[in-house]
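can u pls check wat happens w/ adenosine-5'-triphosphate
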Amino acid sequence: MGTNFITAQQVSKSFGTKHVLTDIDLTLPAGTIYGLIGPSGAGKTTLVKSIMGMEKVDHGTVTVMDAVMPNRQVMAKIGYMAQSDALYETLTARENLTFFGQLMSVAPKQLKQTIAYAANLVNLTKDLDLRVSDYSGGMKRRLSLAIALIQNPNLLILDEPTVGIDPELRQQIWEELNNLKATGKSILITTHVMDEAERCDYLMLIRRGIALAQGTPAELKAKYQVDSIEQVFLKAGRLQDADHSNR
Ligand SMILES: Nc1ncnc2c1ncn2[C@@H]1O[C@H](COP(=O)(O)OP(=O)(O)OP(=O)(O)O)[C@@H](O)[C@H]1O
């Protein structure tokens, strides 16, 4: 594989007359946590789905692990956690993990081990044999994250993985994301939580489908001469508004 897990070039997407993504470039190298940060409706999920090959882009190209997307085989190799949970409610969490593990061709011998690892990571070990219909919203998010990890993927794409997850567990999840990164895996993550943005190696600030700024958190703070990513976002947003009204 080349050095990059994801290369998106000049990606544009509209729904009807609404421009949702405009000329987005994104490069995700190995061993990197890349954060997409932006307000609700900014286009983060649409960009993630375009990278996954689940949305057809109007313009531009997306390459994932050397394959031009959409590509079913490559899509199956990505540990993907969607924004809405796609779980079998009448099955237990263990049965869900087993089902998805088999679907992703995890060897039966390994499956038991990876279920234990993933359940432990998201703190669901003791609730594995409960039916998902009895799970809270946060538990369902955690189970979805465990499913994304079940095949030990080299590339994880996580759409708002920590929504509804308490701060302590969020901390543990971030620690594990960093461990995965240290083994050369890459993670693309969307969030609107600013302290999570600070933990990413590289960020894209996205607003109204436009990449307002890209860089490491330190680079962005230096560029906008502020102390936090939240302030970077506010300043970049104001500049975007001023630019818009000057046209
Ligand atoms: N299938 C669709 N048909 C029409 N409009 C869509 C469709 N999917 C998304 N949109 C619109 O595209 C815009 C961007 O949506 P998207 O879900 O990508 O934003 P987001 O940044 O992920 O927001 P959130 O943080 O709330 O998930 C929104 O205005 C949304 O209404």
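Residues 54 and 98 are 24 Å apart (CA to CA).
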